[in-house]
Design goal:
Low-confidence stretches: 11-36, 44-48
Radius of gyration: 44 Å
Number of strands: 10
Strand content: 25-35%
Shape: globular
Structural class: alpha+beta
Number of helices: 2
Mean pLDDT: 75
Helix content: 25-40%
Length: 207
Amino acid sequence: MLDRVRNTPQVFGASAPAEPSGTDESSGTATPSPATALPPGQGPTAGGDGDVVDLAARRRTRRWGVGLTAVAAAAAIAVPTTIAVQVTAERDRLREQSEIVSEMLVDPDASILRGTVEGGGQASVLVADDDMFFRADDLPEPGAGRAYQLWVVAEDGSVSSAGVLSVRDGETASLVQGVEGIGMAVTVEPEGGSEQPTTDPVVVIGA
């Protein structure tokens, strides 16, 4: 027996032949099917003749897509948020201005001066100490590329700019604080405003 074993060639590492898929007749249990080998060149390894999927490139593309989507979402949120902040700031400014004007109106030394705007419209100035509140209604359009500019008139006749007026539906208002003056004037200037008046005033009040 030992001589037969020694003289019989031994095969190491060989796999036992797989049973065909189906039911083992002796035990009645199903036996698994062997894995099917892929033909050469059709595996997932690079260098074959088949299609090779670059997983790294696909991941980079996905990251860029996610990044662009995040940027677009952030921009969509930022625009209404910016508008909301601007609206809130303007509301707060108007509320504060309204409170100041209310205090000016109850000042026993306050006075209201009125004038007619050349070309149409009425203007008035509420004066209390060194604060002035200018208001005008029914103003005509100043013309293309032109704007109304408000000036504070000093006692010696000199003027200082109080800014370009924002007119909506012919109405405008502007609060000027801490500037000594005896009146206000309005001229029509280039839409960006001027350092000194370049036209005759359309209205002068109190000076």
